[in-house]
Specification:
It is a single chain. It contains 17 helices and no strands. By secondary structure, it is mostly helical. It has one domain: Up-down Bundle (Na+/H+ antiporter like fold). α5 packs parallel to α9 and α8 runs antiparallel to α9 (149-174). The protein is globular, with a radius of gyration of 20 Å. The relative contact order is 0.17.
Length: 398
C-alpha cells in the first residue's frame, strides 16, 4: 500500500472516529438513532464534499469491514436473545423470518419494478435488501415500551432472524439466478449455514464453559474468532455466512446467560466490550455507505426510492404481520398486530448490503442505495419516534 494511501486511511479513520463520537452523544441527546447521523456523516466526509473518507481508494478493505461488521451484529443479535422467550414464540419468528421476508421481497420488488422500470430479478433484489429489520434500532424502542413481553420477544427475535434470511436471499438474487433455482439455492444455503453456525456455536459454548475466572476477558476474543470462523467457513462453501453467524451467536448465548448468573462482573465486561464493538460497526457501515453515495444520484432517484419505501411501510409490512395468525398458539390480538405492523425499522444489514453493492460497482447499486437511504430515514425518523404514541392509542401500555 503506498504511503499516501496509508495516510489517507489513517486520516479518514481518525476523522470518522472523532466525528462519530460527537454524533453519538448528539443522537442520545436528540433521541434519534445514531445510524441516521452516521449516514449523514459519511456523505459529508465522502468524496462529494470533504473527500476525507474514500471507499474507492481501498475497496477490498471497505468491503471486508462492512461484511465483517454485519456478521458481528448478527452474531450479537443471536447471542442477546433469551432462549425461553424464543422457544415460546418460535413459530411466529419462523413465519416472519421466512414467509414474511418473501412477502416483503415480492411487494417491494413489484413497486421497484414500477418505480424504476427494472426487470423482475433486479426489482426482487431491492425487495430482499429492504426485507430485514434492525435489532439495533428495535431493541431500545421496545425496551422503553411497557407492552406484553411476548410481543417484545417476537419482534426482537424476528429482527435478528430476518436479518440472516433477508441477507441470504439478497446474496442469492444478486447472483442473477431465476426465481425457482434461486429459492432452491437459498434453501440449501440456509441449511448449510444453519449447520455450520450450529457447530461453531456449540464449540464456543463449550470453550466458554471451561474458562476460569482469571481468563474471563478472553470471552470477547473467542466470540470474535467464532463469528469470523462461522461466517468465513459458510461463505467459502457458498452457504449463508450471515445465518451461520446468527446461529453461532444464538447457541453461544446460553453460556453468557449462565455467566450473568454466576459472575455478573465478567458478564458486564463482555457486554461493555460488545457495546463498543457494536457502536464502531454501526459507525463504519453507515459512514462507508454515506461516503459511497452521490447526492446528485440520490436526488435523481429520490422519488422512486420514496415510493418503494412507502410500499415497504404501508403495504408490505402489514401484509407480513397478517401472516402471524398462522401461528395459532400465539393468539395475537389485533392491537398487537397493528403495533407489530408499525415496528419495522430499517438499519444495519440493508445498509451493509447497499455498501457492499456500491463497493463492487454492481449495476443496480445506486437504486439499492437510494432505497436504503430513504427507508432508513423514514423508518427511523417517522416510525420509531411515534411507536410509543401508537401503543398508547392501541391500549397496549401496561
Amino acid at each position: 500500500m503506498p504511503a499516501s494511501q496509508s495516510l489517507q486511511l489513517i486520516l479518514g479513520l481518525g476523522a470518522m472516529l472523532l466525528a462519530g463520537a460527537g454524533l453519538a452523544i448528539l443522537a442520545e441527546r436528540w433521541h434519534v438513532p445514531d445510524i441516521v447521523l452516521f449516514l449523514l456523516l459519511g456523505i459529508v466526509l465522502g468524496p462529494t464534499i470533504l473527500n476525507i473518507v474514500r471507499p474507492a481508494v481501498l475497496p477490498a478493505l471497505a468491503e471486508g469491514a462492512v461484511l465483517l461488521g454485519a456478521a458481528y451484529l448478527l452474531f450479537e443479535g443471536g447471542r442477546s436473545l433469551d432462549a425461553k422467550e424464543l422457544r415460546a414464540g418460535w413459530r411466529g419468528t419462523v413465519i416472519l423470518a421466512t414467509l414474511g421476508v418473501l412477502v416483503t421481497t415480492g411487494v417491494v420488488g413489484a413497486m421497484a419494478h414500477l418505480a424504476f422500470g427494472l426487470d423482475l430479478g433486479q426489482s426482487l433484489l431491492i425487495g430482499a435488501v429492504l426485507a430485514p429489520t434492525d435489532p439495533a434500532a428495535i431493541v431500545p424502542i421496545l425496551a422503553a415500551l411497557p407492552v406484553a413481553q411476548r410481543l417484545k420477544a417476537l419482534l426482537v427475535s424476528e429482527s435478528a432472524a430476518n436479518d440472516a434470511t433477508g441477507a441470504a436471499l439478497a446474496v442469492v438474487l444478486a447472483g442473477g439466478l431465476s426465481i425457482g433455482s434461486g429459492l432452491l439455492t437459498l434453501a440449501w444455503n440456509l441449511i448449510l449455514g444453519l449447520a455450520i453456525g450450529g457447530v461453531v456455536g456449540l464449540l464456543l459454548h463449550e470453550l466458554e464453559g471451561r474458562l476460569k475466572a482469571p481468563h474471563q476477558s478472553l470471552r470477547t476474543m473467542l466470540a470474535l474468532a467464532a463469528l469470523i470462523t462461522a461466517y468465513a467457513a459458510a461463505t467459502l462453501i457458498s452457504a449463508s455466512g450471515f445465518l451461520a453467524a446468527f446461529i453461532a451467536g444464538l447457541l453461544a448465548g446460553r453460556s453468557h446467560r449462565r455467566l450473568r448468573r454466576q459472575d455478573p462482573v465478567a458478564a458486564s465486561f463482555y457486554e461493555y466490550s460488545a457495546g463498543i464493538f457494536g457502536r464502531l460497526v454501526r459507525l463504519t457501515v453507515f459512514t462507508v455507505l454515506g461516503a459511497s453515495l452521490v447526492p446528485s444520484v440520490l436526488w435523481r432517484l429520490g422519488l422512486p426510492a420514496l415510493l418503494v419505501t412507502l410500499a415497504l411501510v404501508v403495504v408490505a409490512r402489514p401484509l407480513t404481520v397478517l401472516l402471524l395468525p398462522l401461528d395459532r398458539k400465539g393468539r395475537y390480538r389485533w392491537p398487537e398486530l397493528a403495533l407489530a405492523a408499525w415496528v419495522r425499522e430499517t438499519g444495519v444489514v440493508p445498509g451493509a448490503l447497499a455498501a457492499l453493492l456500491l463497493a463492487q460497482h454492481a449495476p443496480l447499486a445506486p437504486e439499492v442505495a437510494a432505497c436504503v437511504f430513504a427507508a432508513v430515514l423514514v423508518t427511523l425518523l417517522v416510525q420509531a419516534p411515534t411507536t410509543q404514541y401508537l401503543a398508547r392509542r392501541l391500549g397496549l401500555l401496561h
